[in-house]
Design a protein that fits this description.
The chain has 530 residues and is α/β, with parallel strands linked by helices. The protein folds into four domains: 114 residues, 3-Layer(aba) Sandwich (Rossmann fold); 180 residues, NAD(P)-binding Rossmann-like Domain (Rossmann fold), CATH 3.40.50; 135 residues, 2-Layer Sandwich (60s Ribosomal Protein L30, Chain: A), CATH 3.30.1330; 76 residues, Alpha-Beta Plaits. The strands form four sheets. Strands 8-7-6-9-10-11-12 form a seven-stranded parallel sheet, sandwiched between helices. Strands 14-13-15-16-17-18 form a six-stranded mixed sheet, covered by helices on one side. The protein has a five-stranded parallel sheet with strand order 2-1-3-4-5. It is elongated, with a radius of gyration of 30 Å. The structure holds 1,4-dihydronicotinamide adenine dinucleotide and 2-oxo-3-(phosphonooxy)propanoic acid (HPV). The site of 2-oxo-3-(phosphonooxy)propanoic acid has 10 residues, from loops. Pfam families: 2-Hacid_dh (PF00389), 2-Hacid_dh_C (PF02826), ACT (PF01842), PGDH_inter (PF19304). GO terms for molecular function: NAD binding; phosphoglycerate dehydrogenase activity.
Length: 530
Amino acid sequence: MYKVLVSDPISDLGIQQLVEANDIIVDKNPGLTEDELVAIIGDYDALLVRSQTRVTAKIMEAGKKLKVVGRAGVGVDNIDLGAATERGIIVINAPDGNTITTCEHTFAMMMAVARHIPQAYMKTVGGTWDRKSFVGVELRNKTLGVLGMGRIGSEVAKRAKAFGMNIMGYDPFMTEERAEKIGIKLASVDDIVRAADFMTVHTPLTPETRHMIGKAQFEVMKPGMRIVNCARGGIIDEIALVEAIDQGIVAGAAFDVFEVEPPAEDHPFLKHPKIIVTPHLGASTIEAQENVAIDVSEQVLHILRNEPFMNAVNMPPIPANLQSKLQPYFTLGEKLGSFIAQSTEGAVQEIIVSYSGELAEVDTQPLTRYIVRGVLSHHLGQEQVNVVNSMHLAKLRDVNIVIQKSHASKDFTNLVTVALRTKKEEHIVAGTLLTGYGPRIVQIDKYPVDVTPEGNLILISHNDKPGIIGRVGTLLGNNDVNIATMQVGRQLEGGSAIMVLRVDKGTPKEVLLQLTSMPELNTAKEIILP
Ligand SMILES: NC(=O)C1=CN([C@@H]2O[C@H](COP(=O)(O)OP(=O)(O)OC[C@H]3O[C@@H](n4cnc5c(N)ncnc54)[C@H](O)[C@@H]3O)[C@@H](O)[C@H]2O)C=CC1
Ligand SMILES: O=C(O)C(=O)COP(=O)(O)O
């Protein structure tokens, strides 16, 4: 049974698949303090949050069983990603489900600030019929500057065009071709600040975007600009904005997000007649909340059940076409890593991975993570290492990882070769996927073999002498170790050779010792591949 803690208000309908899964127990417990979470998180395999819960290093440290933190939404600035990666906790988000909702809120805010709707409402319900204070401006023929042309920014631009606005967009990943395709003008922040009538920000909050609109930008800003922030508090310098409004540079602002949430009672935005605010409502629609909760629940289920998953924030994304190419190799890669770690003695210094054939043509980084996981989990424990932290843990331990690629592969469409160098020795294992047969180990050191990488194996290195196979069989039989299959690899008759035996159960240590004390037999190692 896996236990999932939901610590923010998340759509019941959205998490239904978790609640109904018969291998999952879901506890809903929103509004806990950090200490309260620390006290209970040790029982849970997964934590589901929105933006309220701050998932700190302290909480993750206490979450000894925690495999995944799922964010039902986009921004993960409330989650300590570094701490999660160090501990191998996968952080996933639900990046698509609230795009339209947040875009629509941005539009609502832009129109509200253009027409003074909240201020006019307050006066009207207060009993004053005041029409002259609230003369607004049209959006038509105005220039809208969009900073951050990702999912939400692009949707905002699309709708703004329908309102007859001219759009200037800035995004480091935006090309001229794409800008042209969606009918906007690619511009710099400086161009936008100087030319736009409205400006809306849709970037994440990063060291680079913090205060990207500050004093310097307000000084050169087109007078009369109206500014919307439905992304993250801190992208626009709040104090500098209030000054710019008071100096008559900015005509009005609409903010859904704040540098500190909730803002302090005396926050200058809260009483300002030209600033309208909402309490981080961008994603708060029934539809979006269902969408993000469904998406995040689905991925959490996959992660807990050890199935392929998407939207991990603390590991590089794998594009869908690459995922389908690499996916079949993940298990093989991890097994090769595990095999080589179990067959090589000494402290790991270098892992040399060679990809040949079609694999040499694609980005194999995700596969390398599985291989490194296989190697390290033999030493650090299966529970400690996963594909999120495997490279990080290797780096921490000064393990050098070398990747080689060769387009030619003599005998196989694809071949993955893993060499492990330790302080003591170096060994090699190579594997491939055989169509219709699945993963195979096809080479161990210099010997060609054909071994299915699973179950309990005994790897023996010996000198190729008549009778040795029989003596090994007799010794194992006498010790009640049943041999299921056997493979022998040698290069020259009478030379050095290896044997790979698959046995039905674990081989006791003393039996391995008896094997190694046989004449002509050099080493005998047990290798267990799940
Ligand atoms: N108010 C709310 O309730 C909600 C807020 N958000 C926030 O909205 C923001 C945008 O979300 P999405 O569009 O889904 O994200 P996204 O990742 O699709 O787009 C963000 C874009 O910002 C761009 N960017 C990064 N650094 C930049 C820089 N220095 N200058 C200009 N552009 C830069 C990126 O290249 C990317 O295209 C995020 O901060 C997210 O957390 C999202 C949903 C709801
Ligand atoms: O998805 C995001 O980035 C949001 O800011 C939405 O936050 P929320 O889930 O409404 O607390």
